[in-house]
Structures are given as C-alpha cells and as structure tokens.
Amino acid sequence: MIGAGGVGSVAVHKMAMNPGIFSDIHLASRTKSKCDAIAESVKQRTGVAIATYAIDADDVPATTALIEQIQPRLVVNLALPYQDLAIMDACLATGVDYLDTANYEPLDEAKFEYKWQWAYHDRFKEKGIMALLGSGFDPGVTSVFAMWLKKHKLKTIRTLDILDCNGGDHGQAFATNFNPEINIREVTAPARHWENGDFVETPAMANKVEFDFEGVGPKNMYLMYHEELESLARFIPEMERGRFWMTFGDEYIKHLTVLQNVGMTRIDPVIYNGQEIIPLQFLKAVLPEPASLGPTTKGKTNIGDIATGEALDGSGEKTFYIKNICDHEDAYAETGNQAVSYTTGVPAMIGAAMVLTGAWKGEGVFNIEQFDPDPFMDMLNQHGLPWSVEELPGPVAF
Ligand code: NDP
Predict the structure, then answer these.
(1) Cα(284) to centroid of ligand 1, in Å?
(2) Which of 11, 177, 206, 369 is the most buried (most CB within 10 A)?
C-alpha cells in the first residue's frame, strides 16, 4: 500500500484483520514516521507486523524499484489523486496489479476525470495486469450499490441519486474530514449532473434540498459533481438522470464562502515574501489534520443510492433506496480513525480482496461497475459496512 493518511490507516488495519487474504502487508508513504505509527497501531490491535518504507510516489523509478524489491501481488494506491498515473506507470513497469479510490487529477487544474486512467487500458491489457479504479465509498460502494440494484431489483435504472451525508460533529469551527486540499477543490468546483446523455453544469453549491437521513436527521444537501457520475453514465447507458448530493452544515458553508471570496482556495501560485505559494496548499497547512479529528468526532455517516427504473419482476416502475450508516465513534474504536476514513478504507480492502482472491479478474483498466457486485456486497456486510435496501413509494421529488 502507498499512502499513510486516514484512509490508508483504515485499509491496513482491515487487511491485517484478514490474514487469510492479506498474508504479507507492506506500507510505504512520503513520511515514513506516519507508516511506523500505523504499523504500531496495527501490531497492538491485531498482532500483525507490517513492513514500512519511505517513498515519493511521484518518482516512478523509485516506486518501480520498491515494487521490485517487495514483489507484491497488488499495489493499493491510497496516496493522493495526483499520484495515480505515476503509480500506474510503476505497476506497468513491474507487471503488478493496481487499485485506487480516486481518479487522477492534475495538480494545476481542479479537473478530475477518468480519461487519463482509461487511456492506460491497452497497456495494462498487453502486460496482462489489471487496474481497479475507484474502490472507496464514493466512488466505490455507491457504484456497487447501483449495480446490485440493477442485478437484483431493476431491469433498468432511469434515474439515480447518490446521497452522501456526514452527520458527524468534530467540535471544530471548520475542518474537512479528508484531505482538505482535495475536499475543497471538489466542493468549490461547478456542480454537474447527468441528464439525457450529457452533463449539465450549474454553479457550485447553488442547489440545495433538505433530506431526512436515518440515524442523522434532517440536513441540507447540495448538488455537486462527483467522479462516479462519469463511470455510472458509461456503464448504465440507459440512465436518463444521475445526480450526486452531499450534506454540508451552515457553518461549513459560511467558512468556505469567506475563504473562497478572499482567495484562499485558489490553486494558482501567488508570490508571498518573494516565495511562490499556492493559497489552498497554505490553507491545508493551517487547518486541522483530518486524522486528528478522530477522537472528537461523534455522530454517523449515511451514504446511499436512490434508484428508479423498471422492476426486474415486470411489476412496473419501482424506486429503491440502498444505504450504509456508519458510526464515527465505533469506527474510531476499531481502527483509530473516524468514519469518513473508515467508509473509504474498508471498501479499498474489499476491492483488494476481490483482486487477490480472483473473485474479480481482468486484464486492462476497469471501473468497479464492471464486476459482479455480489461478493463485494457480502464482504461489506461482514467487514463493518452493513447495508440495507428498502422500496420507496415512488421516485424522489427533489
Ligand atoms: P491524506 O492526505 O490523509 O493521506 C494521503 C497520504 O498520501 C499521506 O500519508 C501523504 O503523505 C501520502 N502522499 C501524498 N503524496 C505522496 C507522494 N508523492 N508519495 C507518497 N505518498 C504521498 O488523505 P486521505 O487518507 O484522506 O485520502 C487518501 C485517498 O483517498 C485520496 O486519494 C482521497 O482522494 C481518497 N478518498 C476517496 C474517497 C472515496 O470514497 N472514494 C473518500 C475519501 C478519500 P504525507 O503524510 O507525507 O503528506
């Protein structure tokens, strides 16, 4: 595994809890002390020893050399989206399978798209290896949920809404629950949703709807662009409308609006005291580390899909709501990380298990929608992210 943040920490803990599949775990990241701290926690909690390494994953020859030294079956990329292509290059050079949870994003453009990674398909195929893209919660589980509904409940999915609610309270005026730079780039980008064969763009945070989330209560959720809309539109070609919604509290919106208005979320360089700085990177340096929020975060996350389409059993149009609810304090007690890291790290472990056990096989670059959802869904229930599905009286009105 590469990347020793909150998500990497959860994934390594969960792998160590499944030694039948993960017999030998190696953790490398830019800062080795962070790998060592995770290894220490894993040792204490599970008794499993993990080897640790320092690596700059932007350095393809160094990553290639490390992969050659360790000779793993799979490289799990839980560093940042900026490293995706470099790590895929190292996997190609060494002939090792690849997995990640977030699609590539160039450092100097807040633009995440699958096109750069999909362009690796033929090279991965020729090498006889596989890349599994987007094996977190969203992207990840939200797509598997949609494909499970398509396999077991609906012949077609006409409309799909993904609802991501974090009802957690960390007690800080403003903090992000995962990497602040990635999080802020995502929420300040224009909203886009899929409608009748194309993406429709609207201003960032302009559409809000109140929704009553089980386990959390009523929350405002905002229409946003999220990367799984691109792969879902491709792999559910009949989908007429696909939207992604995320909840934000009023305090979060207030702080973000001010930071944006004063220019602190800019990603172009500015000169300060004769030195070039990127305002958003500076902001990251002064905000709380997401990992530090674990001990104080209380409440639950509730993430799921509402899909409407023609029922498989021929009973006409039906609407289903499928979701997981995860408790921040339970996640922290189990792995030392809050639920946002937990809900991403567990599916990363499960995706890795799918590849290592051969439940999911392929040569080339694949999105999670392309495989049988059932073994993944079974493991969600067994490894801390149980899900439920219910039929709603009709399509959502918002
Ligand atoms: P963090 O910022 O907490 O951790 C990222 C880790 O990657 C850090 O340990 C960092 O090192 C390391 N890293 C950064 N650059 C390099 C590099 N060049 N070489 C080696 N290591 C590097 O992020 P998170 O744990 O919150 O997120 C990890 C990934 O998961 C991200 O890609 C994020 O977008 C994705 N994610 C996906 C979600 C989903 O549901 N699909 C949800 C949440 C996150 P250092 O400590 O030295 O900075």
Answers:
(1) 13
(2) 11
What HEC string does 312-348 produce?
CCCCCEEEEEEEEEEEHHHHHHHHCCCHHHHHHHHHH
Which pLDDT score, from 0 to 100, does residue 391 have? 98
* CA separation for the pair 242, 160 (Å, rounded): 5
Distance CA 4, CA 188 (A): 26
Structure tokens at 56: 């700059």
Q: In this predicted structure, what is the pLDDT of residue 110?
A: 66
Q: Which mean pLDDT values do the consecutive 10-residue runs of the chain (398 residues) have?
A: 96 98 98 98 98 98 98 98 97 98 86 92 98 98 98 98 95 87 87 97 95 97 96 98 95 91 94 96 92 91 98 97 98 95 97 98 98 98 98 93
CA 373 to ligand 1 center in whole angstroms: 26
* pTM as predicted: 0.95
Pocket of ligand 1 (CB under 6 A): 2-8, 29-31, 34, 55-58, 78-81, 83, 101-102, 136-140, 178-179, 182, 290, 344
36 and 147 in a common domain: no
CB 137 within 8 Å of CB 303: yes
Domain containing 150: what range?
Answer: 141-337+381-392
| Structural domain ending residue among the three candidates 133, 155, 170 | 133
Nearest CA to ligand 1 atom 11: 30
